[in-house]
Amino acid sequence: RFDLIISVDVIHFCSSLDDFITACAKLAKPETQLILSMPHPLDMIVERTPNSNQIVVRQNYFPENNRIDKACYWRKFAGKLELTTELIEHLCRPSDVINTLIQKGFRIEGVWEPRGNSSELAPCRYRAAEPWVTEVLRACVPPDLVVKSIFDEQL
After folding, report:
1. What is the pLDDT of residues 73-92, one digit of tens each?
2. Which helix (H) or strand (E) holds 35?
3. What distance in Å separates the CA atoms of residue 71 and residue 55, rounded to the nearest whole number?
């Protein structure tokens, strides 16, 4: 079992948030830190319109089974590679993540939504916005959601 579990940009590819957090709980010792970093759900459903400063909602915030087909979020980084059309992503709303962690015996230590273009720090050093990410979008929508929790067997 582990003292520290870190998941970076993985959870949105898991079809069951409950199963993922259950697996983390099985791997955790008492007082294990679990740090989850994932795409912010708002960033997964919006995009900037070409040649404009407008942000458009492209996906439903409450999709069936939290499923987003055709890797809309991942495509922002990989472009129009054929691979992205086969990927399935799942929206991880903050309330779902936090409630599932609590149900599985974790206590929440903090929640961060760092701006992509700021120096705000989450529990780990955060990178600056990548060059392909527009400043307009980053000024309005956080790119990531970070949750730090501690496993407590007695909860």
Report:
1. 655 655 555 655 667 888 99
2. strand 28-39
3. 18
